[in-house]
Design brief:
About 5% of the residues lie in helices and about 45% in strands. The protein is mainly beta. It has two domains: about 70 residues, no CATH class; about 325 residues, YVTN repeat-like/Quinoprotein amine dehydrogenase (Methylamine Dehydrogenase, Chain H), CATH 2.130.10.10. The strands form nine sheets. The protein has a four-stranded antiparallel β-sheet with strand order 2-1-5-6. Strands 7-34-33-32 form a four-stranded antiparallel β-sheet, with no helix packed on it. A hairpin with a 5-residue loop joins strand 30 and strand 31. It is globular, with a radius of gyration of 21 Å. The protein starts with a strand and ends with a strand.
Length: about 400
Amino acid sequence: MQILINQNGKPCLLSVDNKTNLSSAELQLKASINGTENWTPAITGSKKENSSVSIILEFENGKYGAKRRIFDFSNQSNMAAKGSPDRNGSDKSQLSETWKVFDQSNSEMPWDMTRAVASDQKGDIWIGTDNGIIKIVNGKWEHFNSANTIISPTSYNKNQTQAVRDMEVDKKDNKWFIIGYDAYRYDNHVWTKFDSINSPINWARNIFVDHSGNVFFTSWNGVARFDGQKWSEITKKNAKLPSDKTLGVFVDSKERTWIGTFQGNVIIEKGKTTSLNDNSTPLSKAYISKMHEDKKGNLWFSLYNEKGTAAGIYVLSPNGNWQRIFAEDPKMFAGNSINDFFLDEQTGNLWLSQNNVGILKYNIDSKKLEIYTTENSNVPSVNIERIIKDKEGAIWAATYAGVIKTELK
């Protein structure tokens, strides 16, 4: 297990290579690790810093042991994680898509492990890897890394760039990245770094850009907001959030700000914070990780909760009615959470990346579900993060073993 420890000693499970006969969901690894206490942060000189640690848990004959795994990254030239899915994929005959895989073996990818992909306002593709950023323009690849930008290298190898953990493109076509524990903005000419010294950014987790161009960052210190000129914060102290450990943030067309935390959800309207704890809605049972508003004004929610059966995709109509997608299988996301979703309103397809499973395609009208895994397709990893659509209509996804793209028919 790779565990991230922030400067306050708070743990966060990043990835797991599970070789037991039980799924990660059954073992409840994420909740167990994230709920532990008394971690000691790394210290350089007298300064506490964020760091990561790899732990091996071994189970045998009813006993278990734990040991730290030490890696020598100094000469490493690549890393990938493929894995076996926790659930079966669809029958191959039922799959409608074929995938093109980009990795070190067939492209200019600097690193196979990727977590972020985006399409900018010109239609160029940006890929964030664990060792640099790629920009693809008409088939030409351009590289951005610690050698030609201000992005910091890793502490263990000065020739390797820190990992990109998320990215978004704002309304001015600026590219925003979470790299390591800091945020970076690239305005297509100049790079700017935002950290705990010049901003509220401190171990940011996800990025959201609203319809007005404001950029939001979720973290375990609340939500940071940048309006293009100045920073502000939305926290437990100043906005009555249930917790500063935030998962998702969204601003809808009515200028209402929705925030999901690990202890509940809130909506902020005209400066007033309202807790979303009505037992008749799914928002009282699971936490907002991502939202989307479609052209009809419906609000789509990806809700997270490792306990119970409330996790999943929900739709709230403008008249206040709730609909659960995959209602016939309420346990579908109980243990294997949704990493990302993309609603393609043009085709009526809902795309989801499911943790330790693969990528799912669901047609809203026909209700046909296609599950692509490492066992029934050439999708290279069960760990898939961001999903986007390019200007030609192809679907892209960042995986831990390369970037994948649907082949256009």
